[in-house]
Specification:
With 161 residues, this protein is α+β, with helices and mostly antiparallel strands. It has one domain (3-149). It is built from five helices and eight strands; from the N terminus they run H-H-E-E-E-H-E-E-H-E-E-E-H. Helix 3 (49-61) crosses helix 5.
Amino acid sequence: MDHKTFGDSPLTRCHFYRQVCDLPATVDPPHLGRIVMKAEHVWALILPAYLGQAVKIHMQQHDSHIGPILSHPRSNRWTLLVRPDIPDDVRLFAEMFRLNVSVVRTGGTVALPSPADQGEQFRRWIEAPRCTFRPSGLVVVDAIRACSEPCRPVQRRRAHI
């Protein structure tokens, strides 16, 4: 779908997200033109922008396909849309929490870029969706771990006396 041919409005953008990218997007509230996606068959990982950049580069260097990534410039965070294959594991969520990473699972909401947004100060695509591809959430979690290794504190064993 060519947005320029049909005009880029919240409704046409939402239609594109739903029909071409299989993102369960809706315009909510209609009078503001904000586009949101309920996490169902698409989940999200929200992380600091510096870590998102490192993850993107890491995945590209390891021949992993990058899926849709959006930026929230005011909060300096990135959202990576992923397949919902991250297990319900308290230790995994705690690990991600310590790295300042949020996992948006079924029932959560993700705001998507809309032409009604005031410029690109709220949300903008780093990697725009062009099809239904999303990387495995577990592959992205592994990339987050790989990129966070230098930041993790060294755990030292206590000497036994």
